[in-house]
Amino acid sequence: MIFKKEQLKTDLWKIHEPWFSEFANLYIIQGSKKTLLIDAGLGLENLPSWLKTQSIVPDIIVTTHSHFDHCGGLYQFPTDCIFLTPIQSVNLPKPALWGLNYLNSNQIIPTRNHTDRIKNYKPFTPKSWKTLGSTIDLGNYKISVIKTPGHTDDSIIFFEEKNRWLFTGDTLYQGKLYGDFSNTDILKWQKSLQTITDLAPKIIFPGHNESFNYLRLQAIVESFLFQLKQLE
Fold it and tell me: Which end of the chain has fewer CB atoms surrounding its CB within 10 Å, N or C?
């Protein structure tokens, strides 16, 4: 299986690359006017073609930050559909900021052989893109784009206000955090976690692992704050 799709809510799907053990969560929100894709995976398989087999053609493609497992597939999409923040536009063409030290062939699940392709992985950058503003209008869904530097300096989250859905990328998820990148900032990350808490989201859809609700939010934030403290 190249990609796996799971419907989470009406108009909302999660997609991942099941052959990669550290896969990121990609999200599709299908609005009444436009369809949004949040994050684009590694870029080893043809995501746009697979999405078409699922009757999904994104109008807007964004990334939560410039790491290989989230931005690697951006180059596969039409350039007029790709939207980046100004700082992402600076970072994306720099492979040194892609976190490639965490990519290795041991993360490949044997059911699908990408071992050689992982060993020879080359970052591809879209030839061009558009500038992402502070809001995304899908028709019946209005999404706020919020800066949350910390994990990386270009990290952003997406907040769908009507349902209070929050898409956090690697700024917050259940599990071990990674904070040893050249553009990691622990103090800013701590402030970004407060930003997430202040939003009081109903459901959090993270960049890795399972989603969780507001009742679990504080415990997961505290886990991240504890881990960040160990990095100081």
Answer: C
Contacts 24+ apart (CB under 8 A), 195-199: 195/146, 195/148, 195/157, 196/148, 196/157, 196/166, 196/168, 196/171, 196/172, 196/221, 197/221, 199/146, 199/159, 199/164, 199/166
**Coil, strand or helix: which one is 143?**
strand
* Residue pLDDT, tens place only, 43-102: 999 999 999 999 999 999 999 999 999 999 999 999 999 999 999 999 999 999 999 999
Name residue 200's beta-bridge partners.
none
Please tell me the distance from the alpha carbon of residue 173 to that of residue 91, in angstroms, as a whole number. Answer: 23
Report all structural domains of the chain as residue ranges with CATH numbers, in order of start: 4-231 (3.60.15.10)
- Of 115, 121, 124, 102, nearest to 177 by C-alpha is 102
